[in-house]
Amino acid sequence: MSNLILGLITVAIILGAMTAFSGSYIAPQGTISDSYRQLREHTGEMARTGMTSVSASVTTGGARLDWRIRNSGETQLRDLPRWDVIIRYHGSTTTALKVQRLTYTATDPPPAGQWTVTNIYRDTDNNAEVFEPGIVNPTEEFRLRVTVSPVIASGSSDSITVAVQNGASLSVGFTR
């Protein structure tokens, strides 16, 4: 009889422990499931984001680059301060390659080492956007303006990259 009572107590302890541990196992599974869902949504948004380079030209004696880009995807491009713009160029004062991550400013023209979006167009005829100002909707185009110092060297092959808020990116090569 004592063995039976001892066995029942042991089984009760084991069942209690299993119940307690199963809760600590199930809770992280919900967190993992939520993280996977967010990853899927973000990956889908990246896949629906597209940009196409329209033109890139160096102006102001090599100090400024104007890059026109079309939103060729299905998602809006927004939150400009969260974008990354990186330029790789040869400066006129040295032969060394300069790689610089530029910071966003709302000022036009931007100071050296900074970038801005100067215009957003609803079509290729340079008609200004009307719907949701400050957000680049699908099929709209925008002009990204960059100012660098030292100025871009003549005849050098250089490149610039923009990565928008959801991680999609576009690069283009240019020469002065």
Explain how this protein is built.
The chain is of the alpha+beta class. It has two domains: 48 residues; 125 residues, Immunoglobulin-like, CATH 2.60.40. Helix content is 27%, strand content 35%. It has one helix and eight strands; from the N terminus they run αββββββββ. Strands 1-2-6-5-4-3-7-8 form an eight-stranded mixed β-sheet, with no helix packed on it. Strand 1 and strand 2 form a beta hairpin. The longest helix has 47 residues. The termini are far apart. The model has no long low-confidence stretch (mean pLDDT 85).
Give a summary of the structure in a few sentences.
This protein is an alpha+beta fold and about 180 residues long. About 25% of the residues lie in helices and about 35% in strands.
Structural class: alpha+beta
Describe the main β-sheet briefly.
8 strands, mixed
What is the topology, as strand order, of the major beta sheet?
1-2-6-5-4-3-7-8
Tell me the β content.
Answer: 25-35%
Distance between the termini: 96 Å
Radius of gyration: 27 Å
Dominant shape: elongated
Q: What is the count of structural domains?
A: 2
CATH architecture of the largest domain, by name, is Sandwich
**How many beta-strand segments?**
8
- Order of helices and strands, N to C? HEEEEEEEE
Low-confidence stretches: none
Overall mean pLDDT stands at 85
Task: Say what the CATH topology of the largest domain is.
Answer: Immunoglobulin-like
Portion in helices: 25-40%
Total helical segments: 1
Highest-level CATH class of the largest domain: Mainly Beta
